[in-house]
Amino acid sequence: MKKGWMLLSVFCVCLFVANSSNAQKEDDFVKEIRGLFWGPSDEHSEDVAVPEKWKDESAVILYQKILYRFTRLKSYKFVEGEGIRRRIKLQDQSAIDEYSEFTVDNPFQSKMSKSRKWMSSIAEVKIIKQNGDVKEVDMSQGVSVDGGTNKQKVAIPGLEPGDILDFFYYTGNERTMHGKHGVESSSPVISTLSANYPIVEQLLQFEVDEKNFFSGNSYNGAPNFKSKTGTDGQRIYYLIDKNREKDEEIRWYYERIESPTVKYQATVMAKENRSDKNYNFLGQPGLQHEGFNTNEYISLVKDNWKFTPMSISDKEDKRAYKELNNRDFLEYIYNKTRFAKVGKFLEPLSLVQNDIYTQIYMSFYGFPTSKSTVSVMGGYLVEMDIPFEFILVPPRNVSTLDNILLIEEVEYLIRAEIEGESYYLPSFYTFNEFNRIPDYLEGAEALSFMVDTKGEVRSGKKVTLPISSHRKNNTERTIRVDLSDLNSDGFSTSRNTKVVGLSKEYYQNSLLTINDHNSIERKKYVNGPYLANLNQNQKIVKNAVKKYEEFLDQQKSDQLARAEEILRDEVSYDIKKFENLEISSVGRLDNKILAFEENYTIDPSFIRKAGKNYLIPVGQLIDDQVAIQEEEKSRTKNIYMPFARSFTCDIEVKLPEGFQVDGLEKLNKSVENVTGGFKAKTTFENSILKIRTEKWYEHNYEESEKWPDMIEFLDAAFQFTQEKILLKQE
Amino acid sequence: MYSNNSMFLGLLICCFLLSWTSLNGQFSKDMDLEELSSSLAQKYEEESIALVHADIEYEFKVEEDELLVKEKVVNQYLGLKENVSFNYVKFYDEKSEINSILVRNGSGKKLKLFPTDRKYENGDYFHTDSRVKYVTVSPGKGELREIGSEKTTIDAKYFTKSIFQEPIPVVEMTVRFVIPKGVVVAFEEYNFDDFDIRKSETLDVKSGSKIVTYRVQELDPLPDERNSPGPFHFIPHVLVLPKSYLGDSGKKTIFQETKDMYAWYRTLVKSMDNNNKELASTVTNLLDGITDEEAKIKKLYYWVQDNIRYIAFEDGIAGFKPDDCQNVFNKKFGDCKGMANLLKEMLILAGFDARLTWIGTNHLPYDYSTPSLAVDNHMICTLIWKDKKYYLDPTEKYNSFGYSAARIQGKEAMIEDGEDFILAQVPVFQSEGNGEGLNWEGLRIEDEKLIGSGKVVYSGERLAEVLYGFNNMDASKREEAVERLVKGRDKNFVVTDLEYSDPNNRDEDFVVNYNVDLKNMVTSFDNSLFLDIDYYKEFGQSKFEDRKTDYVFSYKFNINNKLSIKIPDGFSVEELPEGLDIENEFVKVKANILEEKGFLKYEKYISLKKRKISTDEFELWNLTFSKLGEFYQKQVVLSKK
Question: Do B633 and A609 touch (CB under 8 A)?
Fold first, then answer.
């Protein structure tokens, strides 16, 4: 008994000591983090001045520090920490409203790691009044935010226009590398330097252990990184940026290509694993890696990539390989493999992701990347004894070839030449197609590597990916409108649409149900009912099918609602009633045209009365056109569009008999130049008004000097939508 | 009124009910639930669940000298479709607790579904102590789920109503109040007229308890439509008014009369710890140099509007007791009670007679003849000045002194008057001076464009909306915002030389002057010009379709637009659309185009005479505005002489 009491006492003492020790460590940690942002070396604790040019801004960031830490604990454990400190002057009510509430992680979970390196969050806020008084906000007065988020929100008291808010928020997280071949990276940052408010000065700082990898560089006029050694021997890479204007909203613009941008990322690697560094485009440990030049990338890929043959063992595949020519087999195996890796999961995934039926089990490990796609398809080409090119390319909206730094910036695809023709194989994304370069890669500068029939990468060179012609990306509409009874309470209209090429994806994504586009492939490759691939017991499959069929009904009615919404967005006249949508072709596999028909009724307000005559805004019958506002007309930034594309419209308007039509001359137009054009031709005969319009964008990119040319045809198209005809009684 | 189909369905359901032999009168597994499910699914195409039987009992009990209310619910839900689930939700707060929630299937077997307990998140409140317990239930089509719950309200004055309609169809519902001897409870019934609700009263001889029972049959789901009146204007419900009870120490009064309710409010007010000394220097500084009394009042009223953010913390008693004035002042945020309290104290410091005032907005259909916590939901400050009462609501941003926001107009206010109180009605304002007026005078036609100068004037509640939007916008985007106010995103409309009046002055109309350059309003064909006279075409497409509830506008407004266009030299008027002059109970619409001394003069006037358009007025509304729409379609035709 006495021993028991002694043990209890010892336990209590230990617990007390442990808790006291915990509390001490908490204090130490808070002090450490506070010191990173508000410490004695903080040179910005007195910043109050706003540059004259920004006096009318809603808020101005006087100083900002963004901090990343990547600190090793033991061989396989490390801490990733990130924090931001912002000192911002709030100059109007709008900014006060934005900063009047903070939602932060609940502070300190009392979760101790054995070392001093915590996993936790800390946020501190102070208000500097205009008279210089400093008020600290009690962040413990927050109220919890439910929903399993472990967050709390705090209302910031006493804010007035002219106040400065100085706050920091830091969160640390312990992570583990997976075994001897572990590779862990911080989230890649590819970001412009601007924010929603102008910034007087900002510091970006990355702290890594001396043995870690760090990739970091700046572009398009952003300041360069500098480096130094920290007090704990860590490497510190930092960048100071001053006088940064706020974000601009510019139509058709890729800010990371032209605006000052930084990229950085740190990587830790188990010491046993050094070969992966090449796959991850890493430099040398302990040194700032600023990117490779073209030759270095070529060497890197040549030395580290090899394609292994993919066996054509499936019975059907073997038969196809025997019967089809190489080109057709390549398309066959591309489509079939895509279904195996993507398509077959779409039905069960839709049940799981919508919480309809979660008892489903699938061996699904995520959608394939472009890298895994080229690995597989390259393997087939090796098996087929066909040399090919394996292409490494940054998406147009992410980077240029010369500015690649991080592995996350690149995509891959394959080009195979068969009997003198080139065929491109993009990633296994649902709406990609055999021999169609995704729009975000068209026209991009790339590195192309020749791969021989043994799968060895032989040579590399720079190439520019081709751009598809606007004719290949065409949206064609055939519209029939019945205005034969001008006093009708609605005008019956049908709109037939056919879309090809890259223009399809928008409608495939927004208009089609999963069943619309996936069932064709399921029937082709599985030849079974819904969810035929599920490999579970009969009861689960039966229940899943039942749920899926109900889900399809819901999808259909959602589809109608969506179609109506899309139509209303596309036209400027009022629609009285949306009748139906019929999809005749989804534009996949053998039939590359997406085709659908909509029937609806135009509201009677479409017709304007002018005494005994009628004014009809027939120009509105083509889709709404881009309206370049006055303030957009001067432009210094280059123009980045999704892809070259065209739109053709054939309209037939049935008019009542006994009327003549005035105003046809305004419905005949032709404007074209090197950037694109708009043409319209209109005739009237036998009470039928026929209008044919064509609009096209010649390229996916134009230099800013060409902007006036673009405005010329865009304005012509817009003005067409404003044109009217006069129906006069004969 | 029920259709033949509904009566047949009712008969069908009655037949099913009569075949039931269970002790509880509930649905039996013998019943063809599939068939019932199909027939309900047919009647209610949009619905996926129906409440086929509800038994709700509220028992009043005296425990430890307090009057409690114990609620027991047994609800049976029937799935009407596959792939549906719903949440059975019970709210509670500091004054109540949920004792249990149990779920059984149609065979009576208890299901392992455990309630989740969460904070009630509502955009209207930054924080509230209200919480919810809920279970998520997923009956398949034709499957029954029975959910039983128990809840205790630990202070009966917080138990204010019982609602008979649900967001899903209800086949039958029984609500029973068990009132023991010594407890006095009254009931006020609302919106029973259109529903089949029957009341009965019995006495339990054994216990001496009075049992008041309401039986409800066949209720359609609660409509969920925008701009509906507050739901208690149309949902059938009873207000439960506990008056008194016999406690350990004798009779205890809860809210026998309105004065009892006021007395309780008064205890909360007296329990505040107001210290207006902290406000004194601010009041002095604000009023420095101002001698006119009205100017002083406005200064303080507008200061609270502009400098105190509305953030509602409804935590326990904080839901009823105002925050101390110095707290609101220092934090620079508060809810309606805190803001009213702050304004009151600031006005008192300035020497005015200002009072806290309780009021139910027009979201609620009640007044203070009913002593219940249900009858009010807002607090303002009443200023008694020069023998007149002014209802000051600092939560109404940019509200002008002397005008009361639409949501409190016509409502009864309870004004503190020491140990007593004053009941007064907030005046109702008309639509004049509450809208916008456009003035495009002396425009000319040039190259098919309308060119000239224009002006738009915003007044009353429209002014408050515009000023609020302007002042709460990013300062660098305000000029653009004013331009958008005038022209939207219309490329045809070029606005230049934009000027506007003081956006902080809520006592005067907000006036925007600009130059107009408007393309595509004039079309020429041969020797004629066709003019689309009305650019804005307000309400031209206004129509009520498939709507179940009345429609309530935010405020009564008027639109008064004037346009004059010089007839180009060499042209005369060939065609002028006939004007429009309609007036009925809810709206006045006038539109006229004249030719006068070489000018086309167009004037349009739309005035909303009342905020609420009832469903039986929809047809007339649609007819009225279809005529306006037709008028807008007509062109003015000018021909060469």
Answer: yes
Give tens-digit pLDDT for B231-274: 999 999 999 999 999 998 899 999 999 999 999 999 999 999 99
**CA angle at residue B321 from B320 to B322, to 5 degrees?**
120
- Cα separation, B385 vs B379, in Å, equals 19
Beta strands in B191-263 (DSSP E): 196-203, 210-219, 237-247, 250-253
Look at B635 and A609 and tell me if their CB atoms are within 8 Å.
yes
Spatial distance between the Cα atoms of B279 and B293, rounded to a whole number of angstroms: 19
Give contacts of A611 with chain B, Cβ < 8 Å.
Answer: 574-575, 635, 637
Considering the domain architecture, whether residues A688 and A590 belong to the same structural domain is answered as yes
- For residue B543, the chain A residue with the least C-alpha distance is A576
SS3 at position A433? coil
| Of the candidates A259, A238, A234, the residue with the CA atom closest to the CA atom of residue A247 | A259
| Spans of all domains in chain B | 4-252, 258-425, 435-640
> Nearest to residue B83, comparing CAs of A128, A552, A271, A648?
A552
Contact A93 B492 (CB under 8 A): no
Contact (CB, 8 A) for A502 and A643? yes
Contact A143 B127 (CB under 8 A): yes
Per the CB < 8 A criterion, the answer to whether B471 and B504 are in contact is yes
Size of interface A-B (CB pairs under 8 A): 116
Cβ contacts of B633 on chain A, cutoff 8 Å: 605, 607-609
Q: Which domain holds residue A275?
A: 56-291
CATH 2.60.120.1130 fits B435-640, yes or no: yes
B81 → chain A, closest CA residue: A550
Q: Which residues of A touch B523 (CB under 8 A)?
A: 615, 663, 724, 726
Q: Which residues of A touch B313 (CB under 8 A)?
A: 143
Alpha-carbon torsion (A454, A456, A461, A462), positive or negative: positive
Amino acid found at A278: N
- Give me the residues of A, 635-674, that contact B with CB < 8 A: 662-663
Q: Please give the average per-residue pLDDT across A219-233, as a whole number.
A: 93
Place of tokens 């022209």: B487
A104-121 pLDDT tens trace = 776 544 344 444 445 578
Q: Which candidate, A248, A201, A26, places its Cα nearest to that of A116?
A: A26
Interface touch B476/A550, C-beta < 8 Å = no
Find out whether A586 and A517 touch, Cβ atoms under 8 Å: yes
What is the ipTM, given to two decimal places? 0.86
Residue numbers of A between 306 and 335 with CB closer than 8 Å to B: none
- Best residue of B89, B129, B478, B491 to probe chain A, by most A CBs closer than 10 Å: B491
Tell me if B81 and A609 make a contact (CB, 8 A cut-off).
no
Same domain, A60 and A151: yes
Q: Is A261 on the interface with B (CB under 8 A)?
A: no
* Position A32 pLDDT exceeds 90: no
DSSP state of A114: S
By C-alpha distance, the chain B residue nearest A554 is B83
Identify the CATH assignment for B258-425 out of 3.70.10.10, 3.30.450.20, 3.40.190.10, 3.10.620.30. Answer: 3.10.620.30
Query: Phi and psi at residue B338, in whole multiples of 5°?
Result: -65, -40
pLDDT at B339 over 70: yes
- Alpha carbon distance B94, B119 (integer Å): 12
> What is the Cα–Cα distance from B482 to B484, expressed in whole angstroms?
5
- How many alpha carbons fall within 13 Å on the CB side of residue A431? 22
The CATH number for B4-252, chosen from 2.60.40.3140, 3.40.640.10, 3.40.50.620, 2.60.40.10, is 2.60.40.3140
For A122, phi then psi, to 5°, come to -150, 135
Q: Which of A487, A432, A458 is nearest to A606 (CA)?
A: A487
